[in-house]
Amino acid sequence: HYKEASRKTSGTVLNLIASRVSNLIGGSADVAGSTFTDLTKDKFFDVKSYNGRNIRYGIREFAMSCAQSGMLLHGGIRSFIGVFAVFADYLKPSIRTAALMKLPAIYILTHDSIAVGEDGPTHQPIEQVSSLRLVPNLVTFRPCSAIETTYAWKYALESKDAPTALFLTRQNIEVLSKPSYADFVKGAYIVKDEKDFDYVLIATGSEVELAYYTSERLAKEGIKCRVVSMPSTNLFDKLSHEEKENIIGKDYNKRIFVEMGSTMPLYKYAKHVYGIDTFGASGKANDVMEYFGFTVEKLADFVKNI
Questions:
Q1: Rounded to a whole number, what is the largest CA-CA distance in the chain?
Q2: Cα–Cα nearest to 29, from 5, 55, 61
Q3: Residue 183 dihedral angles phi and psi, to the nearest 5°
Q4: Bridge partners, 172 (sequence order)
Q5: Catalytic (active site) residue 207
Q6: Is the pLDDT of residue 222 over 90?
Q7: How far is residue 241's CA from residue 255's CA, in Å, rounded to a whole number?
Q8: In terms of Cα–Cα distance, which of 169, 202, 137 is closest to 7?
Q9: DSSP 99-142
Q10: Which of 90, 185, 208, 210 has its CA 20 to 30 A from that of 231?
């Protein structure tokens, strides 16, 4: 039951990778302290130290993303960039062309939901996650734990002909299961199962924890739920119809998708979607999540009212 923000796990994994991959270089758009993108044992790349591996891009998200593509086109290095998920809007044209050119770019997109809280609706992504899932040849991940975050980095680093986007949390998230890497790269897997289940709760990122504890509560009232983590809709979409049904169940009407973001694209997977189709709100993370109904009690009521 280890708990840690996935942005922090990502920073730990990134530094471990950097200690073993000497041609890794990257930086952020002036938010390294928040995105955990600093390579802590390395210098900054500047006119005085061309051997530095940390790049200070400044608040130039689009230029940063274009620079990453340029470096990858040149060859000889692996790179990454980091920024808040809501500002993926600035990166979008360059992400799209990176996908078109089959570049193994890595985008670290933190503060991935309304749980950003105090920064208010300008910094709370609603449609950004779904928007990037729609980009052809871009593989997106929204990991639900330290284990999934580590696996997402493994996938990103091994990619040769497709960019990868990692959507990471600001708040701590719990390790509730230990999937194999083989299950993870299917894009979805069963976290908690029930024989003859009534519903399937499909969730991503921090909402997997919410779905898990909601299923525990509903079980006490005689409602049995399978819980599925779907870290990558892109990888899940590549499965056969039979493989998909083995994970999310055969009955579309019994599926409920839980994610703190746009609902429209998620109806592809479930008849019922518990999400957000408005801008966020300003307040402490827990208060904002409660305001939008992302609590065990309110999600359980939603399920019972179906």
A1: 66
A2: 61
A3: -70, -40
A4: 5
A5: no
A6: yes
A7: 15
A8: 169
A9: HHTT---EEEEES-SGGGGGG-GGGS-SSHHHHHHTSTT-EEE-
A10: 90
Q: Are 227 and 201 in contact (CB under 8 A)?
A: yes
Residue identified by tokens 């061309």 is 50
Please measure the distance between the N-terminal and C-terminal CA atoms of the chain and give it in whole angstroms: 31
Confidence label for 118 from pLDDT (cuts 50, 70 and 90): confident
Using 50, 70 and 90 to split pLDDT, how confident is the model at 49?
confident
Quote the CA–CA distance of 114 and 284 in Å, as a whole number. Answer: 10
Give the integer Cα–Cα distance in Å for 231 and 246: 16
Q: Which of 158, 290, 145 is closest to 231 using CA atoms? A: 145
Task: Provide the mean pLDDT of the chain.
Answer: 97
Which of 61, 148, 207, 259 is flagged as catalytic?
A: 61
pLDDT attached to residue 119: 86
Residue type, 62: F
**Nearest to 204, CA basis, from 253, 116, 273, 271:** 273
Closest CA to 212 of 143, 258, 149: 258
Q: 305 near 288, Cβ under 8 Å?
A: no
pLDDT digits (tens, 9 = 90+) for 163-217: 999 999 999 999 999 999 999 999 999 999 999 999 999 999 999 999 999 999 9
Q: Which SS3 state, helix, strand or coil, does residue 252 take?
A: helix
